[in-house]
C-alpha cells in the first residue's frame, strides 16, 4: 500500500479503500491491528473524524498510525468541529508527517452525537474546504500569507447518489468538481442504477475525477432497516432486506459480506466506476472477507 | 423582534432572595408581543412578588410601542421614579437583555445609583412572523446574502449554516437532517430558484463568510431621529 494514493488513482487500476473507525479513548490496539490487517489489502485507509458527532480518537492520530506503518492514510476533515485556522493548522501538521490525502466533508449533526450541547462550528463548508486546500497547495494560507514550506494534498470529496430530491445534491457536487477534486467517495450505494446515473453526471462535468462507490457492510435485516430509517442518503432496497431476513439465524453477517462482495464484483466487472470505499463500521476485520467475496485479494494489486 | 420566553419563576425568586424592596420594569416592544413583559405581565409579576413576601415599590408597565431598549424613551419613563430606585434593593426587568442593560446604564449614569438588576426573561433571538408563531429568519450577519439565495437565508434556515448547497444528510422528500419537520433550506432555495427561472444562481461558489462583521459587541452610530 506504500504507493502514494494519487499515483494509484492515476494508474487506472480498480481502487479499493476502507475505513478505520477510531476508539473512544486511548486504547488504540484494535486500530493498530485493523491497520496491520487491512494495509496489504487496500490502496488507502480513511480514518473518520468524530463520525456521527461522537467524540473519538482523532482522524489525525489514526492517520499517523497508518503512516508510521507505511500505509496510505486518508485524513477525513469535517467542518463541524474546527474553524478555518484550526483546519489549516491541522493540515500543515498532517502534511509535515506524511499524510497527503484529505477527504473534505461537512460533518454530521451534533444533535444525534454524544455531545449534543456543543457549539457547532461550520466556519467554512465542504466546498470552501476544497478551495482552501487548493490555496494551501499553492503555497499560501487562506488570508494570502506565504507558507514557509508548503503542502501538496490529493483532495477528495463525498457525494450522495441515492437521495430524493437528487438535483440539489448534484448541484452541490458540481460545485465540488468546480472547486477541484481528485477523487470522490460516495455514501453507501445499494442501487447500482443510482450509482450509474451519478457516475454519468460526474463524468459529464469532469471525466478525470475518480469515483469510489461507498459500500457499507450490512450485518442483518435489522441493520438495513435501521439505516433506511435513520441514515439520510442510504437506501437499502427491499430485495436485499429480504435476502438478509431469509438468512439462517446467525448468518446475517455472512449474508451481508456476500452482498457487499457481490456489489463490489459487479461494480468492478461492469466497470461502473473507478473503485470502492468499504465501510465496515466496527467490523473492520471483515473487509478481508468482503474482498474475498468480491474476488479481489491484495495480491491483485 | 427579539423572541423571548419567561424565566421560571423559581429562578427569578432565587435572584431576589434577600432583596425585599423591588422595582419592576416592563417593555412595550417585543416583550409585549411575546407576553413576557407587557403591562399585563408586569401586573402579574407584582402580584407574584407580593405573594412571595416582597414589597414592590413600583411596577412600571410600559405601553405598547414604547421600547425599553430605546434610551430616550426609557429615561423619560423612569425619570419620575428616582425615590423608588434609590430605596429599592433590586430592579427586576421584564425585557430582553438589551432592555436590561440599557436600563442598568440609565440607573448608573442618570441617577448615579448602583443597584442589583435581574432578568425575568430568556431572550431567544431575532424573529419574525406572528401573531402566534414566530420564527428565526435572520442571524444579523452584517453582510446580507439574501440577494444570492432567492430570499431564503441558509445561514439561519440551515442548522449548519451552509452557504454552498445541502449537506449529505438531507432526508427522504427533502427534509432536514437536524429538524426532520422542516424542509432542507437548500431544497427550499433550489425549488424557489427553479420557479424563478434562476437556477444558475445555485452554481456560484460563495466564498467563506466574513464573520468579522459579527464580532461582538457591535455598535452603530446614526444621526439621532428628531422628535416628531
Q: What's the story with the biggest beta sheet of chain B?
A: 4 strands, parallel
What is the N-to-C succession of helices and strands of chain B?
EHEHHEHHEHEEEEHH
What's the total count of β strands of chain A?
A: 8
Number of alpha- plus pi-helical segments of chain A: 11
The largest sheet of chain A has its strands arranged as: 1-2-3-4-5-6-7-8
Q: Using the alpha-carbon principal axes, give the shape of chain A.
A: globular
Fraction of helical residues of chain A: 40-55%
N/C terminus separation of chain A: 9 Å
Strand residues, percent of chain A? 5-15%
The greatest interface between two protein chains, and residues involved on each side, is: A-B, 38 and 30 residues
Total E-strand runs of chain B: 8
**Strand share of the residues of chain B?**
5-15%
Mean pLDDT of chain B: 96
Q: What oligomeric state do the depicted chains represent?
A: heterodimer
Tell me the number of helical segments of chain B per DSSP (H or I, 4 or more residues long). Answer: 8
Low-confidence stretches of chain B: none
Protein structure class of chain B: alpha/beta
Give the overall pLDDT of chain A as a whole number: 95
Question: What structural category characterises the helix and strand content of chain A?
Answer: alpha/beta
* Biggest sheet character of chain A: 8 strands, parallel, barrel
Amino acid at each position: 500500500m506504500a504507493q502514494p494514493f494519487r499515483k494509484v488513482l492515476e494508474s487506472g487500476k480498480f481502487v479499493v479503500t476502507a475505513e478505520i473507525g477510531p476508539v473512544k479513548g486511548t486504547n488504540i490496539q484494535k486500530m493498530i491491528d485493523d491497520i496491520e490487517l487491512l494495509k496489504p489489502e487496500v490502496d488507502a485507509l480513511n480514518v473518520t473524524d468524530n463520525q456521527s458527532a461522537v467524540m473519538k480518537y482523532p482522524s489525525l492520530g489514526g492517520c499517523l498510525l497508518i503512516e508510521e506503518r507505511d500505509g496510505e492514510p486518508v485524513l477525513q476533515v469535517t467542518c463541524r468541529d474546527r474553524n478555518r485556522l484550526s483546519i489549516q493548522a491541522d493540515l500543515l501538521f498532517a502534511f509535515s508527517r506524511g499524510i497527503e490525502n484529505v477527504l473534505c466533508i461537512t460533518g454530521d449533526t451534533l444533535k444525534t452525537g454524544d455531545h449534543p450541547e456543543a457549539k457547532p462550528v461550520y466556519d467554512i463548508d465542504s466546498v470552501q474546504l476544497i478551495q482552501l486546500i487548493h490555496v494551501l497547495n499553492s503555497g499560501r494560507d487562506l488570508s494570502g500569507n506565504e507558507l514557509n514550506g508548503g503542502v501538496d494534498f490529493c483532495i477528495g470529496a463525498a457525494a450522495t447518489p441515492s437521495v430524493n430530491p437528487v438535483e440539489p445534491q448534484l448541484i452541490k457536487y458540481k460545485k465540488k468538481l468546480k472547486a477541484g477534486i481528485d477523487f470522490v467517495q460516495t455514501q453507501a450505494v445499494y442501487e447500482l442504477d443510482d450509482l450509474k446515473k451519478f457516475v454519468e453526471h460526474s463524468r459529464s462535468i469532469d471525466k478525470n475525477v475518480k469515483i469510489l462507490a461507498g459500500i457499507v457492510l450490512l450485518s442483518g435485516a435489522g441493520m438495513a432497516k435501521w439505516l433506511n430509517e435513520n441514515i439520510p442518503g442510504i437506501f437499502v432496497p427491499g430485495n436485499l432486506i429480504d435476502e438478509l431476513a431469509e438468512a439462517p439465524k446467525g448468518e446475517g453477517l455472512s449474508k451481508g459480506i456476500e452482498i457487499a462482495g457481490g456489489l463490489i464484483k459487479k461494480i468492478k466487472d461492469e466497470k461502473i466506476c473507478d473503485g470502492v470505499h468499504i465501510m465496515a463500521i466496527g467490523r473492520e476485520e471483515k473487509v478481508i472477507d468482503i474482498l474475498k467475496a468480491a474476488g479481489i485479494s491484495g495480491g491483485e494489486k | 423582534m427579539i423572541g423571548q420566553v419567561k424565566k421560571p419563576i423559581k429562578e427569578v425568586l432565587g435572584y431576589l432572595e434577600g432583596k425585599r424592596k423591588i422595582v419592576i420594569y416592563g417593555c412595550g416592544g417585543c416583550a409585549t408581543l411575546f407576553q413576557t413583559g407587557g403591562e399585563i405581565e408586569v401586573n402579574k409579576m407584582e402580584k407574584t412578588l407580593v405573594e412571595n413576601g416582597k414589597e414592590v415599590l413600583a411596577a412600571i408597565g410600559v405601553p405598547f410601542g414604547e421600547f425599553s431598549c430605546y434610551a430616550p424613551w426609557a429615561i423619560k419613563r423612569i425619570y419620575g421614579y428616582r425615590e423608588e430606585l434609590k430605596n429599592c434593593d433590586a430592579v427586576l426587568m421584564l425585557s430582553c437583555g438589551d432592555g436590561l442593560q440599557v436600563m442598568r446604564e440609565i440607573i448608573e449614569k442618570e441617577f448615579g445609583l448602583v443597584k442589583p438588576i435581574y432578568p425575568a426573561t430568556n431572550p431567544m433571538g431575532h424573529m419574525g412572523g406572528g401573531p402566534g408563531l414566530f420564527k428565526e429568519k435572520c442571524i444579523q450577519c452584517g453582510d446580507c446574502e439574501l440577494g444570492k439565495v432567492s430570499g431564503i437565508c441558509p445561514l439561519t434556515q440551515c442548522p449548519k449554516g451552509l452557504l454552498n448547497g445541502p449537506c449529505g444528510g438531507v432526508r427522504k422528500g427533502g427534509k432536514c437532517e437536524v429538524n426532520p419537520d422542516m424542509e432542507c433550506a437548500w431544497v427550499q432555495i433550489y425549488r424557489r430558484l427553479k420557479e424563478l427561472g434562476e437556477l444558475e444562481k445555485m452554481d456560484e461558489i460563495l466564498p467563506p463568510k466574513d464573520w468579522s462583521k459579527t464580532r461582538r459587541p457591535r455598535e452603530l452610530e446614526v444621526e439621532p431621529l428628531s422628535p416628531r
